[in-house]
Amino acid sequence: MDEQHSGAGDGDPVERIEAALASLRRGGRPQWGAPHGEAGEHRRHGGPFGGPHGGPFGGPFGRGGPGGARGPWEFRVGPVARARLLAMLDAADRPMSVTELAGAVGVDQPRASRLVQAAVEEGLVVREADPDDARRTRIRLTDDGRATVHAASSSRRRAIESALDGFSDEDRERFAELLGRFAAGLRRAHPPHS
């Protein structure tokens, strides 16, 4: 099966659309230039489709709403990197080190440490001693953190379902396929930096 068509018809179209939208923003910063563009070029923050702090498409998918209102992509968990950090911990089969989280989330180690500290202060994660090396700590999601991740996921799903209101089942399938192909093409054209 060719990569352009992979994912077509595989699973729920809402899940495929959510995954494609997430992949458009994955990496936490634009892959085609400095983290915030050239000096004074803040408008590029958020990738090729975002306005100032606007997630992949601005508006309801980021802080682009009136007065910086948060949309469904930032339900309580805040910025995209923090949401990814919590999602990684939710998906992991064990607690993770800050270094592991940094790599998984796509941020540097100091940024990961700040994200972890903010999540600790909100009660979303806890630090615990690494049983293999008492000098190190591991990060574990709390019950509140897990509930937050699941609430954010439900909120995103409701937003996508609402946006698809009026689409036929065939239109939903086709849109999911085309958006997935577009996201895959964009990743090929602008691969993440190693």
Automatic annotation (TrEMBL):
Pfam families annotated for this entry?
MarR_2
* GO BP terms: response to stress
In this chain, composition skew of type Gly residues spans 47-70
Superkingdom, taxonomy of origin: Bacteria
One GO molecular function term? DNA-binding transcription factor activity
Annotated PANTHER family = MARR-FAMILY TRANSCRIPTIONAL REGULATOR (PTHR33164:SF57), TRANSCRIPTIONAL REGULATOR, MARR FAMILY (PTHR33164)
Output this protein's name. Answer: MarR family transcriptional regulator
Give the species this sequence originates from.
Agromyces luteolus
